[in-house]
Write a structure and sequence with these properties.
Shape of chain B: flat
Number of helices of chain B: 26
Strand order of the largest sheet of chain B: 2-3-1-7-8
Oligomer: heterodimer
Number of domains of chain B: 5
Structural class of chain B: alpha+beta
Largest interface: A-B, 40 and 48 residues
CATH class of the largest domain in chain B: Mainly Alpha
Shape of chain A: globular
Strand content of chain B: 5-15%
Number of strands of chain A: 9
CATH topology of the largest domain in chain B: Hypothetical protein af1432
Order of helices and strands of chain A: HEHEEHEEEEEEHHHHH
Radius of gyration of chain A: 19 Å
Distance between the termini of chain A: 42 Å
Number of helices of chain A: 8
Largest sheet of chain A: 9 strands, mixed
Structural class of chain A: alpha+beta
Distance between the termini of chain B: 53 Å
């Protein structure tokens, strides 16, 4: 399939996986914690730290409770996929490698307008930032391209190049679809052709209800405190990876609280600072273990 | 002379940084070359997304030779001293030194000649240093390299006199090559010199001159619009940015669904500009936006740009769909809802100054008090009549209504998405509400006030002109100023995070522009009182003491910061006065005249706080001093003041008791001093009465009557009379003359 242009959502994923496998990346699977972005997979957040070379690529389902629109908005989802690539150190020709991947999914740079537009990436909850661009294709942001400079408040040496493809958006663009739920998910000629809506529309409806109406803020606050305490305890015990899991749990619980609108602006800063402290703790301990 | 070409080839440089980077590169190279003894003629810079560079047409092949004389010890000095000299001068034998005689005897002198270094060697040394320390606003490392640059730096091309200069920077290529357009002509190019470089890049779809790219974009965009009978909505800032996003501009006209045109025009333009970097297009006949946009691509697409235009149109539709979602949600309710009010209570205006709703309540209270002053204004015709309002109370009610509504849109979805549209969204929503609910007249003024109370947004922005908006804007800005003064967050020379200078200048421009006679100290005290009554009673402790301007104004405790209300108001007035001074100076008014009017009255020590009157005084004074009478009177004033000051210096000046006793008319002997005395007796009350009536021209005219008696006095009368009594009396006469002029300004501040 890799020579033919993709025809459906999953083709885009398979094409990218095959392409980046060809660049020497380990093809990983999604991390089994609820996260807001593919960057939070330990394969990126933690592996960006320390001197050891690393190349990986994976799909990561991302949950952003506040972005739920009950399946009624053509572009916004509270659960969607990102395709994440990390190369450490970034090879000098990373831009070209990235552009080649776009060609693979069917974007011809002499037919479309590909642009690198300044966008400095920052994730305050994990104390990470980098410089790079949004990559535009005919005015549509199809990827985020970042050279990591800090993670968990620590300088990264060497620098990693990180690519995040917004898979739904990219696929909508490539297939000329205006409503995400109309995307062909599998081969349209399959005996059982499925759209993105067939797979996820009901999930968007129910999860949006949960995020905005049914989640239990009191319980989530208790769980947040428990997750925070557990992460700290695990860090003290030198168990960085489990501590990182509980940091991710705390981060997601905060997002759920935020979606219910129960977090005032001042409290918001304090929640973010608490998660950042955990993330910094994990990053520091991990970086030390890598020396 | 030989030419230098330098190109730093990198990944995409942010558009907003390119122009500044060119300036920095020119400055740093110029400085370093000069320091190395090289004069750079014809230095020019260029930049595009992927390259930053410089060319110098005329650079000497080597720096000038330097010869230096080094003075050594006396002839016959101890051997140790001679050896030390040889070492420091780099000589091997004392025979190489010359002997020079001067008054003190014979000395050894070493003449050291140093040949100027080759320019290539100098460039080789300074270029890496400039690159390593380049002042990018933000820079980064890449891979395992230690170099920081704005984005990964790939190659440094450096040619001097046609020959490659190897610029060594770790991890960066040093090929004497460049590369063309990323997609059209990615192959390497080996240029001979700058002209060849520019020409061959042009052949490889790269225009290195940003001014040329800007001109092409503008020209093509105008032409595309004109071909459809439309016109481009020009935007200088956007043009600059877009020219930094492309190496080969290709301008395309895109179409959008006309159904989006029912969104507020500001929303459409902002969506286009900030998110997509499109130019808006206007239909000149319909006087509104056309369902088109201009996008600048970086590629000459195989299909002529059809796919690019269509793709961009789809992205814009998605954006506008989002905007429509927010707009439709917002317009479901009237502008004022309890839910929005509750949200405003949650938004912190400033940690120490309470919520945005708290501000609304203060502004409303202050606006209620200021509105009658604005209503009473029937000044210059530039200020329109108070519009649809039949009575003052109807006008005041409208101002209060506008105050209640003016911050409501801060919690709308549309402003959440487009914060730049604060005020405009409120106005639009209120207009929609009025449509459903006629009559409109007063309402339109309220709607305009909601938008305009933020104005002026900068020195070039218009000031509110409608009286409702003026009253509201004054109250909003005075509240802000007093609040930040109260918590001691005043602007400093380098930092003004709350834009307080802009707020103060706004107050000045509104008052002076519309001729509104607002006694500022009183208004500022009212603003202080609004803080006391609305916020402080509920959030902090406060103390109310009877002050000169009524109760509630003396001492207030804000978040444990005590301040004297008097002190605060005085300081704030001085700040406002400074803004007016700056403005008057910018308008070309002589700064010394401004100072003369702003100075406290030398006799009464009173400070004028009516900006309109201050401006009138400056103008009258300016006109008066341009007349012969005025100029002579000023000369007379200077002479009188000098004499008084000189006597004071000698310890023979007037004592307070002398001034209190006043001059004795009986002691006036000479006709010229009698004449001056009589002229003063006439002019002084006349000038004072005219000042009272604010007829400053008449006041100046009254004073001009003093000109010939003063001239005659200095001609004919000897101030330093031998008799002490007469001398003192004459000094008193001069002092009285000085006082007369003080009625209109402090003449001591005037130059000339």
């Amino acid at each position: 399939m890799s020579d033919k242009p993709p025809r459906c959502f999953q083709d885009v994923i398979l094409t990218l996986q095959a392409y980046w496998a060809g660049q020497g990346c380990a093809i990983l699977q999604p991390y089994d914690e609820q996260v807001g972005a593919g960057t939070l997979h330990p394969a990126t957040t933690l592996r960006a730290l320390g001197p050891k070379p690393w190349r990986a690529a994976y799909v990561q389902p991302s949950r952003r409770p506040k972005d739920g629109r009950y399946g009624e908005n053509p572009n916004r989802l509270q659960h969607y996929y990102q395709f994440q690539v990390i190369l450490k150190p970034n090879p000098p020709d990373l831009q070209q490698l990235y552009l080649n991947s776009l060609v693979r999914i069917g974007i011809d740079p002499l037919l479309h307008d590909i642009r690198f537009v300044e966008d400095d990436w920052e994730n305050p909850t994990v104390g990470a930032w980098g410089l790079g661009w949004e990559v535009w294709c005919d005015g549509m942001e199809v990827s985020q391209y970042t050279y990591f400079q800090q993670v968990g408040g620590l300088d990264v040496r060497p620098v990693s190049g990180e690519l995040t493809y917004g898979l739904e958006r990219l696929a909508m663009y490539v297939f000329g679809v205006d409503r995400v739920f109309d995307l062909p998910f599998n081969d349209p000629d399959s005996p059982c052709p499925l759209t993105y809506g067939d797979v996820f529309l009901e999930n968007e409806r129910q999860q949006s209800r949960f995020n905005f109406e049914l989640s239990d803020p009191d319980m989530n606050l208790r769980w947040f405190n428990d997750a925070e305490a557990t992460a700290k305890r695990l860090l003290e015990a030198g168990a960085v990876l489990p501590a990182f899991d509980y940091t991710l749990k705390a981060s997601h619980l905060f997002n759920l609280l935020d979606a219910r609108g129960v977090v005032s602006p001042t409290e918001r800063q304090s929640f973010i600072a608490r998660v950042r402290d955990l993330a910094k703790g994990c990053a520091g301990a991990w970086a030390e273990s890598q020396q | 002379m030989p030419q230098l070409l330098l190109e730093l080839f990198s990944e995409e440089i942010p558009a907003r940084m390119q122009k500044r980077a060119e300036e920095d590169l020119a400055r740093l190279f110029g400085e370093r070359l000069k320091a190395a003894g090289l004069e750079a003629k014809g230095l020019r810079t260029f930049s595009s997304p992927r390259r930053l560079g410089l060319a110098i047409d005329d650079l000497p092949a080597k720096a000038a030779d330097v010869s230096e004389e080094k003075k050594g010890p006396r002839v016959g000095a101890p051997e140790q001293a001679v050896q030390g000299f040889l070492k420091s001068a780099g000589l091997s034998s004392i025979d190489q030194a010359q002997i020079v005689e001067d008054k003190k005897g014979a000395f050894y002198v070493a003449r050291i000649g140093r040949a100027g270094r080759a320019t290539a060697a100098i460039v080789q040394e300074i270029a890496p240093e400039i690159v390593r320390a380049f002042p990018w606003p933000k820079s980064m490392r890449s891979g395992a390299s230690d170099l920081t640059w704005v984005r990964p730096l790939h190659n440094v091309l450096c040619l001097f006199d046609g020959a490659p200069v190897k610029i060594e920077i770790d991890g960066v290529g040093v090929k004497p090559e460049t590369w063309g357009h990323r997609f059209h002509a990615p192959g390497p190019i080996k240029p001979k010199d700058f002209a060849d470089y520019a020409a061959r890049l042009r052949g490889a779809n790269v225009l290195i001159d940003r001014e040329e790219r800007k001109a092409i974009i503008l020209e093509q965009a105008r032409a595309l619009c004109a071909a459809k009978g439309l016109e481009l909505v020009e935007d200088v800032g956007l043009l600059e940015e877009v020219a930094g996003l492309v190496e080969w501009p290709v301008v395309l006209l895109g179409e959008m669904d006309p159904a989006f045109l029912d969104l507020p025009g500001e929303v459409i333009r902002l969506s286009m500009r900030t998110h997509q970097k499109y130019f808006a297009v206007r239909d000149p006949k319909a006087q509104k936006l056309a369902p088109h946009f201009i996008v600048v691509a970086n590629v000459e697409a195989k299909d002529g740009g059809k796919a690019i235009a269509a793709g961009n149109a789809r992205v814009l539709s998605a954006r506008l769909n989002d905007a429509r979602f927010f707009w439709d949600a917002d317009r479901k309710t009237p502008l004022y809802t309890e839910a929005r009010r509750e949200k405003l209570k949650q938004i912190v205006f400033h940690q120490k100054l309470g919520s945005v709703w708290g501000k609304v309540e203060r502004v409303k209270a202050l606006a209620r008090e200021l509105a009658p002053v604005v209503w009473a204004q029937h000044g210059p015709p530039a200020f329109p009549p108070a519009g649809a309002f039949a009575t003052e109370s109807a006008f005041v009610a409208a101002v209060e209504r506008a105050a209640e509504l003016c911050k409501m849109d801060l919690v709308t979805e549309t402003v959440g998405e487009f914060p730049e549209l604060q005020g405009q969204v409120g106005r639009q929503l209120y207009l929609l509400e009025l449509n459903a609910e006629p009559p409109r007249g007063e309402g339109e003024q309220v709607a305009q006030a909601i938008e305009d109370h933020y104005r002026p947004l900068g020195p070039n922005d218009r000031v509110p002109s409608d009286p409702v908006a003026v009253a509201l804007a004054l109250a909003d800005k005075l509240d802000t100023l007093v609040g930040f003064w109260a918590i001691d967050e005043k602007p400093t020379g380098s930092s003004d995070p709350y834009a307080l200078r802009r707020a103060a200048l706004g107050v000045v421009r509104m008052l002076v522009g519309a001729g509104i006679r607002l006694p500022l100290s009183e208004s500022a005290f009212r603003a202080v009182r609004a803080f006391v009554n609305v916020v402080m009673t509920t959030t902090t402790t406060h103390e109310t003491v009877e002050g000169p301007h009524g109760p509630g104004t003396a001492t207030i405790t804000v978040s444990r910061t005590a301040f004297e209300a008097e002190e605060l108001v005085r300081d704030l007035l001085a700040f406002l006065a400074d803004r007016l001074k700056v403005q008057l100076r910018d308008q070309g008014k002589r700064h010394d005249l401004v100072d003369a009017v702003f100075a406290p009255n030398p006799v009464t020590k009173e400070v004028d706080d009516d900006l309109v009157r201050i401006v009138a005084r400056v103008e009258a004074l300016d006109a008066f001093l341009k007349t012969e009478d005025g100029a002579n009177l000023l000369a007379g004033y200077k002479r009188a003041a000098n004499i008084l000051a000189a006597e004071e210096k000698k310890g023979k000046g007037l004592a307070a008791a002398d001034i209190a006793a006043g001059l004795d008319a009986k002691l006036l002997a000479e006709p010229a001093e009698k004449a001056l005395y009589e002229a003063l007796e006439k002019a002084l009350p006349a000038a004072r009465a005219a000042v009272e009536k604010e007829d400053f021209a008449a006041a100046m005219k009254a004073l001009s009557g003093l000109r010939s008696p003063v001239d005659a006095f200095f001609d004919k009368v000897l101030v330093n009379a031998p008799e002490e009594e007469i001398r003192r009396n004459r000094l008193l006469l001069l002092s009285r003359f000085r006082e007369a002029l003080s009625a209109v300004a402090d003449f001591s501040k005037i130059e000339g």
